[in-house]
Design brief:
- By secondary structure, the protein is of the alpha/beta class.
- The chain has 15 helices and 9 strands.
- Strands 2-3-6-1-7 form a 5-stranded parallel sheet.
- Helix 1 crosses helix 2 and helix 13 packs across helix 14.
- The longest helix is centred in the C-terminal third of the chain and has 19 residues.
- The protein starts with a helix and ends in a 5-residue tail after the last helix.
Length: 310
């Protein structure tokens, strides 16, 4: 995290394009906002766009704007996000979900620093700093011909990786303390050392966002109380994947309190996949052979579970 903060400080002073890569919930937008706030453009707007949440047929108008009458329903001229972000920063989140035809148009803007509204022939200047983010492996998407190589290299000027929470478990206690200060209903709530240690053994597939949601849930369930291991939701009480594996192996019958079978199986699967990858030094094809899977099947499972190779 210190190394990441150093990179943020270094790149903020320039206008270089930044690509923030990391799993879902690791704080990619916070990194982008930090770069903007430390930059000479901090007085301008910070405009985020989720490229995966906007329908493909509307994305061009959303980014570049449109003129009145440019298409059915365009009853007035509308500014796009590039114009809204003039003098500031445009944050393109989930850039890996951008359709190929839009990738071509974005590349042209990055190269020429000009664009046109939909239905217009007037060139407008793109006075913005671009920060893109994705949870996907763009190089793999390039190989699969789902992302343009030229756009990838145009975006990948200064890459920053946000580390997953399982790789920085020493941050869990201060993150919990910080979140408690942000929730007025958390007054008096505290976690025992044992509860925090158990949370440090959990793999956190949802990363910091999942931890923040857990803290908020605990403030509702146990307001003003001291939360020990037994007060944690069931899936967090198991601790590490190895402990979960040992427990699963010893389950001769369904526990009286029941079990979340889907979650139980998913975490067993995550543990075995991670072990196979570790044993084969991250070579997916060899790990797939250990698990009796096709390589493509293992890749899909890794995407679903949020597992990345070292």
């Amino acid at each position: 995290m210190r190394g990441m903060r150093d990179l943020v400080a270094q790149v903020a002073s320039s206008d270089a394009t930044v690509l923030v890569v990391g799993e879902t919930g690791t704080g990619k937008e916070l990194v982008a906002r930090s770069i903007h706030e430390l930059s000479a453009r901090s007085g301008g707007p910070f405009v985020p766009v989720n490229c995966g949440a906007i329908p493909a047929e509307l994305l061009e108008s959303e980014l570049f704007g449109h003129e009145k009458g440019a298409f059915t329903g365009a009853i007035a001229t509308r500014q796009g996000r590039f114009e809204m972000a003039a003098g500031g920063t445009l944050f393109l989140d989930e850039i890996g979900d951008m359709p190929l035809d839009m990738q071509v148009k974005l590349l042209r803007v990055l190269q020429e620093r000009t664009f046109e509204r939909v239905g217009s022939t007037t060139m407008l200047k793109a006075d913005v700093r671009i920060i893109a983010a994705t949870h996907q492996n763009l190089e793999a998407l390039v190989e699969a011909q789902k992302f343009r190589m030229d756009l990838f290299y145009r975006l990948d000027v200064f890459p920053i990786r946000t580390p997953p929470l399982r790789d920085r478990v020493s941050d869990i206690a201060p993150l919990i303390a910080h979140q408690l200060t942000q929730l007025p209903e958390s007054d008096g709530l505290a976690l025992t050392d044992a509860a925090v240690q158990r949370l440090e053994q959990y793999p956190w597939p949802g990363n910091v966002r999942e931890l923040m949601n857990l803290v908020e849930r605990l403030t509702i369930l146990h307001a003003g109380q001291v939360v020990d291991v037994q007060q944690l939701p069931e899936k967090y009480r198991f601790g590490s994947d190895s402990a979960l594996s040992e427990q699963a192996g010893s389950l001769d019958r369904l526990p009286d309190e029941g079990v979340d079978l889907k979650d139980h199986i998913a975490r067993m699967e995550m543990q075995l996949i991670q072990e196979a990858l570790d044993r084969e030094n991250g070579v997916v094809a060899k790990a797939a052979a250990l698990l009796g899977l096709q390589r493509t099947t293992l890749v899909e499972k890794m995407k679903k579970l949020g597992i990345q190779r070292d």
